[in-house]
Amino acid sequence: MKFVLWGAGDRAVRILPHIGHQNVLAIIDKDVNKQGKKLQGIDIISYEQFKNLYYGNCVILTTAERVLAGILEKEGYQNFLYMNDCPEDFQSPNPRDILKRNVLKLFIDNNCYVVYGDNLYTIMVYQWGKSKLGDSNIKVVTGDKIPDSLFNTFCEFCDGNVSKIFDKNDDGAVLLNTNKSQNVISGVGFKEIIQLSKYSEGIVEYRNNRIEKFKNLHYGKKCFIIGHGPSLREEDLEYLYEKKQICFSMNLAYKVYDKTKWRPNYYVAQDVYIMNSQKQVFDYLEGIDAFISDGSQSFCDENHGDNIYINHMACYGYEDEEMPFSEDFAQICYISGTVSYSCIQLAVYMGFTEIYLYGIDFAGIGGRYEHFFKHDTDVDEPPCAHQFYVSYMSAKKYADEHGIKIYNASRGGDLEMFERVKLEEIELN
């Protein structure tokens, strides 16, 4: 048995190196302009062709996952898995084997292992363990709620070493939990329980020790995070410049430089498009500490100045209902559809306790997303619009729980979850 992917976009490209091209029969896509073509050598087909040719094979949903799951479930098809259930390492546009190499270190001869989970990552961890131990000392427990057709898929990929419940033979084994939930109810005396869903939070290869000097550097102070929304005003940036306020900005911030003396103190970018195709951005960073995600291998391989700090970005799927919030930016930054969420995490890491959002014109779900400057990607509701909202809600939750104030000083938009303030009424030192 092999997989069929649904969605011939960027996310399919991201997961392919991890599951292996040889394990994919075809890729479903509704776009008739893609059907009949190939993605990295794999045929792109219609849903009808899938039903005629590959029905019964396990489908991996890479985009609009809840919607596509609804289509399959309506037809009684239950043999599918979500890409979003894989760790953030598998969602990155810069695919690497760092997670795999570190998980492999967990497998020690003479130990027995139980991989617990019902997702694609479960199958992959089993395969990794098998490559090191063979299949005699490792098994999978899926839980008893898994559909029979999907359970059969697990049996196919895991050599039949699969059960739906723990048993007495699991006593003394090491449990590797691949589910996002940390709750494991088994009644079994495991030797050790290791949570794998966020394992990259402790991988030293992702850590940038150079960033540690920024920890609590601005403790108790206020800062401004400057977006590119249409409500941004040049005179407001001049005002912040004159008041010597600490500012973060992002992406194409340089496009306003010819209209103001204002410059950000800190710059953040996580968009691979910026790093690979808009490299003129980096000509405007003199004297600015810039935090650039490791989402682009080509960018990370280049030599950069001392003001450039590469940070590890952890991609989360656009349909998660809550984003994690990083408490250690030197180790990891959780990214979503909006780089402003990364800026908030960095600001908190630096110790700011008053964070003002300015020029961040969140247009809501179904709104039109525009920029202060003309930009060819202004669109009606980008694919990640829902994740913008989820991210801001996660930022608010973290801030409220940790005594941090986040205000919205933007002159427009629909970002109403943060208290509105007028820029000219903020007390600036």
Provide a brief overview of the structure.
The chain has 429 residues and is an alpha/beta fold.
Which keywords apply here?
429 residues; alpha/beta; Rossmann fold; sialyltransferase cstii, chain A; 3 domains; 8-stranded parallel sheet; 6-stranded mixed sheet; 11 helices; 25% helix
Outline the structure in words.
- The chain has 429 residues and is α/β, with parallel strands linked by helices.
- It has three domains: 3-85, NAD(P)-binding Rossmann-like Domain (Rossmann fold, 3-Layer(aba) Sandwich), CATH 3.40.50.720; 98-202, Rossmann fold; 207-425, sialyltransferase cstii, chain A, CATH 3.90.1480.
- The protein contains eleven helices and 23 strands.
- It has helices at 10-19, 47-53, 65-74, 98-104, 120-133, 148-157, 234-242, 272-277, 297-301, 339-349, 385-401, and strands at 3-6, 24-28, 38-39, 42-45, 58-61, 80-82, 113-116, 138-141, 162-163, 174-177, 192-195, 222-226, 247-250, 266-269, 289-293, 308-311, 313-315, 333-335, 354-358, 368-369, 379-380, 405-408, 419-420.
- The strands form five sheets. An eight-stranded parallel sheet has the order 16-15-14-13-12-19-22-23. A six-stranded mixed sheet has the order 3-4-2-1-5-6, with helices on both faces.
- The protein is globular, with a radius of gyration of 23 Å.
- Residues 364-369 have low confidence and may be disordered.
